[in-house]
Amino acid sequence: MLVSERIGQFFLETDSGRDRLEYTEYGAGDAWVVLVHGQLMPRRMHQPLARALAADGLHVVTVDLLGHGRSDRPADPLVYSMTAFGEQVIALLDHLGAPQAVIGGTSLGANVSLEVAVLAPERVKGLIIEMPVLDNAVEAGILAFAPILFAARFLPFTVNAVRRVTRPIPRGIVPFWAGIVLDTLDQRADAMAAVVHGLFFGRVAPSSKQRRAITVPALVVGHPADPIHPAADAAMLAEELPNAEFVQARSILEWRFRPERLDRAAVDFARRCWKSPRRSRRAGA
């Protein structure tokens, strides 16, 4: 089923000045869902899931957080933190006039969703958490992102050279996920260093005590054999959240390349949060 898609933007005041954030809306109505991307990735990574949710009558928004995708990318590490990202999602809800939403995300986006639930619990209808980064991911996270920070800070020509090579490649001629990889590689060294620095030296997620106080329904998806996003973290989070259900993906690639099962789980979960009936589909739609 085809759904309407439109791009929007809004502005917020930060320590670096007035910054612009860009988002895409899918569908319409009052049953809002906000999806947040992974670290350094663009909002377009959630386009397939957003379309699946919107096709069932939900009003879905994907957003590029500050320093990501087509939003502004200030080179000041002080403007980047999980709390700041959570505040940006709340500002997006304010801009859209959405009193509440199901908030969901992958990796960074999963942790940001938890931040929103702590900062503004009254705005959260439910949580879709894929690949949270918690206690069991500390060592792998350091190994993965310390070299990125080092390269961006001390060898910026390497990051900028990759950008010059990847940016001209038309995204329309490559497979969808290859395009997402190209978008992720499209980084400015100064901004990328600021993003990683800000997150590296800030808190990764709300504390266990704060997570246990999140009472909204939650769908937690964990992946096997993923050292940066251990399934143990997802299982632990599902135990901590009082109203969580845990779904284990068959692999770290399932939701990317064979998404039907997990899309259905996310659609059914979001619909239950809003208690909205399934939209009837016309034959052939």
From TrEMBL:
GO cellular component terms listed in the entry, alphabetical order: membrane
Pfam families registered for this protein in UniProt: Abhydrolase_1 (PF00561)
AB hydrolase-1 domain residues: 32-138
The protein, known as: Pimeloyl-ACP methyl ester carboxylesterase
Signal peptide start and end residues: none
GO molecular function, one term: catalytic activity
Matches recorded under InterPro entries: AB_hydrolase_1, AB_hydrolase_fold, AB_hydrolase_sf
